[in-house]
Amino acid sequence: MARAREQDHPFYKPLWRRVMIVIVIALWLGFELYMGSGGIWLAVAAGALAYAVYTFFITWPKDAPKDSPKDDAGPAA
Fold first, then answer.
1. CA angle, corner 29, sides to 28 and 33, nearest 5?
2. Any residues with CB less than 8 A from the CB of 18 and at least 6 apart, and which?
3. Which residues are CB-neighbours of 21 under 8 A, at least 6 positions away?
4. Mean of the per-residue pLDDT values of the chain
5. Measured distance CA(46)–CA(75) in Å, rounded
6. CB neighbours of 52 closer than 8 A, spacing ≥ 6?
7. Cα–Cα–Cα angle for 10, 11, 17, nearest 5°?
8. Which of 29, 32, 47, 58 has the fewest CB atoms nearer than 10 Å to its CB?
């Protein structure tokens, strides 16, 4: 059974969506730092930001997966 990965979902394919997700999480982290809570939500925001940057930019495939080439001869008889 194939393992589902974030990189395989078509929602995350456009670069602007991945950038916006990271910006929103960074703003959330900034808010938590500004409020000075220093609690669990600060750790959650920092972890989410680290995970998003790692997943969407560091380990993101450079080339999009290509479909298998289609045979022009048509289906086998």
1. 120
2. 12, 52, 56, 57, 60
3. 52, 56
4. 82
5. 52
6. 18, 21, 22, 25
7. 130
8. 58
Cα 35–chain centre separation: 27
- Residue 45 near residue 25, CB atoms below 8 Å: yes
Contact predicate 56/11, CB 8 Å? no
Kindly report, residue by residue over 20-43, the tens digit of the pLDDT. 999 999 999 999 999 987 789 999
Q: How far apart are CA 17 and CA 20, in angstroms?
A: 5
pLDDT of residue 74: 57
Structure-block tokens of residue 43: 């750790």
Which amino acid is it at 51? Y
